[in-house]
Amino acid sequence: MVAIPSSPPTSREVIRTAIVPVTLSGANYRQAHDAHHIAAGLWGEALNWVHAEWKAKHNPSKYDIRAFLTSIPREQRPLHAHTTEAIGYDLYEAIKTSRTNRMNGMRVRSPWRKKNYRPLSFSKSYGWRVRCDHKLNLSLGRGRPGIVLALPNVEDPVTGRLVSPELWGEIQLCWDQDNRQFSLHIPYMSRRMFSAGKAVTAIDEGIINPMALATWLDEQTINVTIVNGREARAIKRQRNKATGALQRKLSKTKNGSRKHRRLVAAKKRTKGKARLQLRDFDHQVARRAANHVIAHSIGRLVIGDARGIEHKTKQKRRMGRSSRQQLSQFSRGTEERYLAEKTGLDIEHINESGSTKTCPVCGARNCPSGRDYRCKVCNFTCHRDAVGAINILQEAIHGDYVPIGADVEIRVTYLRDEKRWSPDQRTTYRKVQCRKAITPSSAKNQAPAETSCKPKLAISSTSSSERVPLVAVA
Fold first, then answer.
1. Among candidate residues 166, 191, 216, the one where a domain is terminated
2. Strands 10-22 and 470-472, how do they pair?
3. Opening angle at CA 88, ends 83 and 90, nearest 5
4. What is the mean pLDDT of the chain?
5. Is residue 125 packed enough to be buried (19+ CB in 10 Å), middle (13-18) or exposed (0-12)?
6. How many CB atoms lie within 10 A of CB 201?
7. Number of domains in the chain
8. Rounded to an integer, what distance in angstroms lies between the CA atom of residue 286 and that of residue 385?
9. Residue 423: what pLDDT?
């Protein structure tokens, strides 16, 4: 393997979207509620019109859909004109996506489903504006009162600074059905670092460890970064058990009763909380993978093709019920999309069959047990996910699982998805707080300003028998 010289990462402006939960007053809440229903009705009318045009052998464009919606009398569409036009544009994009998927061999239908709620779009300088009293006004059209709420603070996570409303784009007002609250989706321009080079990184995806990244550092060294994902499994398991228990109670209640409504609300809260936690987890995994890609100046990103692994698992009886559930809840596509956005690279998929069974040193086939891989021919030992990532890397470069040789050093670094307290630290903190509460003191109660946690240590795995120093986990 010939090492490719690295080049410094580049920075460019990208569009980020901040999701800001908001609280509306009673009058504004009712206005937003009615406006969402009206937008859904316009979507249904446009959908009926498009299907009628198709039956007449016409192919309407997005401007034709927009002209149909704006031709509806203003009394029947009490929304801003730009909000109405955005509904037509969204419908056309949905039609375009379905056609693209059919061309790629997917069995999908054109948009046909009616909706009860539709997000409201407010264009810059026309649909929304900042009033003199520092309130945000969302317009519902000329002559109608708008939705007024407090001006939200949008902070750029890259720079840590507040983003001025002058840099905001088209705002969307959305309703979170699970968490039962409104939120603003505010796009803005931000500068982000992207990878720029010619090196190759291969990724082996999994359920326990979402991503294992392998990259040639030089002719004798391979860097492997493994991102741990056990927290996501814990979140999903807790959600599944909680929703299952609530569903069993729901089956014993009468539909529409007070207890039934309370249980439905509790089920939605459970799912909404887990969805937000998993969204944050997927971003954390993609960020740690993107840091590896940017640090090594990667120009090509290759991932083992695991698409469709969750399909027809019950019919084929390939695994048990618990494993099938984990596969059906595998957030592989979301993490890949986040990684592409954070690195600015296009993702390639290649066949990964046998990648975790093939020894990267001698090429022998072994059946690993657990998370460790041990070759019965050459006694090579390494992490199972690291072996899969290395073989995918060799296939991306050479077209096959070419052995790397016994003198190549493999550096494996384990990263947690987030810096959180361990159960022992949390228990100790609670005991200290209980002692402080029992002991009388004249000082005011104050929360700890900062908690220092020692980083976990991971041993770098190598192909030789030499001892290597401990690597601190970020």
1. 191
2. unpaired
3. 90
4. 85
5. exposed
6. 28
7. 2
8. 17
9. 60
